[in-house]
């Protein structure tokens, strides 16, 4: 057992750390200004493109994507940055310090990352050429259409969207929501999960198809907000109706009936990313708290000398240290024995990290008083993000039940 | 000891309950439509005025205000509805079911209620005629300018706003924020807390003055948001700069040096109202959860049959029943022995209720999945409100420390 | 609504309070000495009899028992003290300050109280004369044999003890445990729950019979401990085997098939008593903490000035005030509308109070350091008692599930 | 970073695991019988000596002790087993499965381990020969006399025990308590902390001396219990009075004024051991819960199918996995950069692990019902041990405050 990061990790995190503090965090107020000047747009503002150009020039690009045969299939060249899941995890944490800017600056933002992974792993060369390459180039963005408003979508057997084979086409009908990024007109690709075989075995009913945003029958109905945030800086969260949307059969991702398995495959790395970004948000919050507690006084002394504030930061530090190790171990398991063997840990971090981050952010807001819930600090928006993560990919309780069931089956 | 509500309470809550369910809750989507149609306005939309007219016609008006000599001074007639704090508490809970509409429908919304109480208790006949009467008539609104961005305002000794006597005038200089309602152009009255005697005894340095919104030197700088919500439907939360604002000395509320005492007096009833509304929000949430849990299924059965959902609603019910009693007892103490003797309880409910409501709303959001954090359900916005209450009037920790100190002094 | 205690309550609690502080608490070290001198005995030590004599002389006797027709049937005189459940609740809280001595001093200790209630409500005149009168006189004690080691006894349908009718007798076979008090040789009466009709409707299978301790076939097998406490001062907790124990059919309590209903009836008042005593234990703990925090110093000042200690006592005070009101309201409901209508509240207090008391005691132990977990302070033993209450009458989770189910059924 | 245990760890834990399950756990009922047969003795029963003989024969002996120059000084041979802190940590976890027997079987039980470490690190060859060798041989036992009844002993500046130099002797006067193991007549060595220089710098006032149990003036006053447990199987917890106890000056451990530093040095490995044993206790509890939940039914199905039980075991699994990693990383830091650099982590695990173990044991007791709090299951006794750990070496709050202060000082 060795808890020291390897040299690749040390080197890449130093570079990302520098980029974060020299370029990304100073760009946050620029984004706010550009957002205020363009209140009705959905998608990236110029500051993002600037950061992307710089990051790309420095080779800090697509760091999330491991290399692999599929990833290089269509072009014969390496696409990913060659980092392991464990190595990228440390990078992902740093991007959490500035969740609106850092992930997109490095072209490492959800949901594109997950979608690119799917295309790299399961896409045909043609699919990769058409969708993966422009995504890796940040020329387009994408959305993942899984959740439906009318059913508990964490239970995949309840999905109602239909994908019917009709000659050389698939015809898609259904209603999806919380398709993150889909308000962005640049989100050219929608990956849609639906049922091709509603009467098949429970986990073989579903398939995934690639749908161009401009395909007839696709309607982006409305944006949804998370708490009061519409997240229009990156493309929001959309409700999308598919009304007899017809795509060629070659747009199927993987095989028929593999939709559930593909969705599961997507989750593993995504959770590492989400969790590490969450820890990064919490570290940023703690950093803000430290500064605040040293400089703000009340009732006779700086907040840093209040027993309760000390206890909060101590509790936060303990939680962060323990949970980071758990996420890193999960990443290591994924790299060494694979996602299936890491199932307990993948569920564990999905449950434990977002709520801990929420708790840490809650304490941080309390230290900041009214400023903490306002837009003058990033805390409340981070809180909303962490809170939403407890529902993303299914509510924690589904995973707790599954983890508990597995534990109770152990000999 | 008798836990049965008296007949006045029973009668008034029945009427308010009916009004709430027949008129207010059905008006919620109307408000949403009117807000969507007027995205740049701050203040009431027409649906509010409609509800106010109906409520007034039914005598459900200014229910929060007890009668008293001061209250009737200028007009010779009863102004308040004659309810005790305890009796009104039951009404306040019901208004929490629809926090954007019900309190304003009955002219019982913060911060006007607290401001009207101050004018009724401490105002001169002239002040009452000029400000209290139009507030009681809902012809104007008002704001309370206490919190400052640069200091821990829960520690009144840190207030930096200055109120200097200059001949027959007071001259006010300072910066306030989170002045709820002050973005509303109808908020004609600002009650401002500042220091008239910065070198006086700690709790005698502060005074309060009445400032017309259109007085030269008053600048409403910008709106502040709470978890992404700008609360423009009622007037938002503003940062306000007072730059040598000159008002006649007769605008002093109470005497010089009484600002802290007046602020304290304002808090007692306000906390009853806040807490009871919070319990009402939680009851609404539970009501939504019941409906959802009966009709939504996942993994083989309705949510209502999941052990975890059952436990959540049970825990929520227990917390609500216990805390409601504590708030009601506090109201009863205020009615019988006065705010000073009820200090422990007033602090206790301020601490215990908002966080319990936050917890209940958090569980409710979890039952609703993605819908829970969106604007399709009232939960996330209620959550933001409950969360902010943990900071309003000073963070909970200030009150915990004070309550703990008092407890440790008991023999 | 009126939160003031009535004059009866005020008067009786003053007398009990005085007795508690003048006689009972000073007797605690005497009990410790007598226990140390008689390490192998089970049952009351002389100090208990002394206190009982004094309490009886002062009319502080059998305060738990309301008057009623059944209660006076055999003797023509009033047996109970005439207090309502609500009035006695305040007394019960005071007895919690000294849980080993105060309840027994007033002849108000479980399980005798519950057993006396059963005899008063359901007993025939003959049963009352034989068992109730000596219990009311403290000439004998009793045990309640419900829980079985081999099944989840909170699910009454799982009870395996058989009560077979055989001519004019019932014959009992089964194994019970945690029969509190049954190690005491003076526990002359065992009330045993078993199945007379194993194939009947779920809640009509059970009956209760009165069994003299010396009936052939009754074997008290062994004592059980709670944490490391054997509770021998009052009679411990026994495992008891019933091996073809034959009693006359007239020993049936109530009718055949009424065992479950009778057990339920027993629970209501018992929970009020348990919960109020729990609150009394917590108040005693807080009182000890106050004294300790004022007199003990660490790292530069008394514990009373540490932020964390202040927060603990504040949290404890809040919990106590809210939960006391909930228990008192439950008692009031039982007095006014009956146990059935108070079901939600009875379950709520059973769940909420013991765990709050446990939490308060846990914090108190932390303030006391090593002394807190030792026998030099009453905290650890009280903690064990509160912890056990979370299992008594079925684990909390059974009640949470039931309460949640009922809540989810509400319209 | 590499989360795989090395081969030494794998090999030693396999052997310990086998010994644990084949010999130690089956010996638990034997210990109970031997304890019941000798209720008045303090110290090991024969079953312990049997296990020690077997463990020693298999080379599973003194595994806690790393090799080092000091350790081999007096005999020229290796004394320790040559395991690193990280390697031994995995062993310590396994010993937690049977806390009364496994640590002593391997001669790895507190407080002897810490005392042996002190002698190995700071003892002179003569001290090592006289005390360390027989301890390593399990011919004697030892106690650590630090905590005092009259002061907050976590604040070393408050220690009142005096160690005065008098010619070639030291003379010790003071009162200690919770000297674990000191009731055991075989505890031949008492290591006593006291002040040699009460007016010196805060952390240079204290020294440690080695005191033979039979030195005149040493009185073992009485045993202390922890939640009713007197822990007589290994030597209990004693109050010890030192009344002008005279020892030769060569009995000083380390130098004058080094008592505080030595005490701190003792804490690091001790916390790893305590925490890993705690995790082992929790794993044992989970293992018992799994068995129980599969075989016990209530209300229509096995406990394993209840949502709440599933959630409990899931939560327990998550906590265990995260905290184990944190303890292992702490051990790794101690091995690689030293205790001083690992201070944050050492404090973190001291705070986080015992309370998590307490929580897990609390849930486990709840699954077991009444059996859970009784001596029929090991849960309640383990709970008492975990609870006491939250006070050992100073209450958690002292460490939280220290950790928080350090965190707030970070840039």
Automatic annotation (TrEMBL), chains A, B, C, D:
Its cofactor is FAD. Keywords: FAD, Flavoprotein, Oxidoreductase. InterPro entries: Acyl-CoA_dehydrogenase (IPR050741), Acyl-CoA_Oxase/DH_mid-dom (IPR006091), Acyl-CoA_Oxase/DH_mid-dom_sf (IPR046373), AcylCo_DH-like_C (IPR036250), AcylCo_DH/oxidase_C (IPR009075), AcylCoA_DH/ox_N (IPR013786), AcylCoA_DH/ox_N_sf (IPR037069), AcylCoA_DH/oxidase_NM_dom_sf (IPR009100). Pfam families: Acyl-CoA_dh_1, Acyl-CoA_dh_M, Acyl-CoA_dh_N. Residues 143-245 form the Acyl-CoA oxidase/dehydrogenase middle domain. One of its GO terms (cellular component) is cytoplasm. It comes from the Bacteria. Residues 257-406 form the Acyl-CoA dehydrogenase/oxidase C-terminal domain. One of its GO terms (molecular function) is acyl-CoA dehydrogenase activity. The keyword Ligase does not apply. The keyword Iron does not apply. Residues 10-137 form the Acyl-CoA dehydrogenase/oxidase N-terminal domain. GO terms for biological process: fatty acid beta-oxidation using acyl-CoA dehydrogenase. PANTHER family: ACYL-COA DEHYDROGENASE FAMILY MEMBER 11, MEDIUM-CHAIN SPECIFIC ACYL-COA DEHYDROGENASE, MITOCHONDRIAL-RELATED. Belongs to the acyl-CoA dehydrogenase family. Homodimer. This is Acyl-CoA dehydrogenase. The lineage of its organism: Bacteria, Bacillati, Actinomycetota, Actinomycetes, Micrococcales.
